[in-house]
Design goal:
The mean pLDDT is 93. This protein has a 6-stranded parallel β-sheet, with helices on both faces. The protein has a two-stranded antiparallel ribbon with strand order 4-5. The chain is built from 10 helices and 8 strands. It has 257 residues and is α/β, with parallel strands linked by helices. 37% of the residues are buried. The protein is globular.
Length: 257
């Protein structure tokens, strides 16, 4: 049944076609400063520094959200998200973007309420009105220890936590969608009954193609929003049919005992 399936999405280049950080940097004139500092600071610290620059220029959080609302979202992906939610699937996001960016874009396109959980780098507005961006994993505490993931977020660790949290509810099948190198670790955590959907010719896809035997989940590649929608709905239909057959066989077996 669809209700037994958890879909986990990356955000940048998976739900949206581009990168939310890049959009803010480009549209709000931060590219030159970013290029000067990009190799001197960790990514989260760098993006937090960019927000400090915007604040010093008199730009407000409202200016940032207006910029984000211009981010396009493919109509096929919107349709897929709404359809999967209506079918009873649980939808989650694990992203190395940040809370404000993701929530603003999804809310603008009317699909924020379809997601039960968003795990990403947290944000808040300080007393001066400046947007602050912090790492998902506290860098001052014990490191997560994963060599595949950046220090601020191990998506594989998050997947393990999600799997533990939903096991009691009977939701045991996962579909994971992503594009980047950071999506490889969680893909390795998936089992034989799960599915992974890497974006074709992006880093996750290349990692999987480099050693496909390491991936236990069934692999379905995609390139466009239209392909993503078609494959997702096909997988959910296939899962429903398989579950119905298993249920019918179990009932028949019980009745013959």
């Amino acid at each position: 049944m669809a209700g037994n399936t958890v879909l986990v999405f990356d955000f940048d280049r998976t739900i949206i076609d581009g990168d939310s950080d890049d959009r803010v940097l480009t549209e709000m004139g931060l590219t030159c400063l970013f290029n000067k500092l990009r190799y001197n600071l960790p990514w989260n610290s760098l993006m937090d520094r960019m927000m400090m620059e915007l604040h010093s220029q008199g730009k407000t959080v409202e200016d940032i959200t207006e910029c984000l609302k211009g981010t396009p979202l493919d109509k096929h992906i919107i349709a897929a998200i709404k359809a999967l939610h209506a079918l009873g699937c649980e939808l989650r996001i694990i992203s190395d973007a940040n809370q404000l960016y993701i929530e603003t874009i999804l809310e603008h396109h009317g699909v924020l309420g379809c997601f039960s959980q968003i795990d990403t780098n947290p944000t808040f507005v300080d007393e001066e009105g400046r947007l602050r961006i912090f790492p998902f994993h506290d860098l001052s505490s014990t490191p997560h220890g994963c060599k595949l993931c950046p220090p601020n977020m191990c998506k594989g660790l998050v997947i393990d936590q999600i799997k533990a949290s939903v096991s009691d509810s009977g939701k045991k099948r996962f579909i994971y969608l992503g594009d980047g190198s950071g999506d490889y670790c969680p893909s390795l955590k998936l089992g034989e009954s799960d599915f992974v959907m890497p974006r074709k010719k992006y880093p996750l896809w290349k990692h999987i193609c480099g050693n496909p035997m390491l991936i236990k989940a069934k692999v379905h590649e995609w390139s466009t929003g239209e392909e993503q929608e078609r494959i997702l709905l096909h997988l959910i239909d296939t899962i429903a049919i398989q579950d119905n057959v298993k249920s019918a066989n179990a009932s028949q077996s019980n009745s013959s005992d």
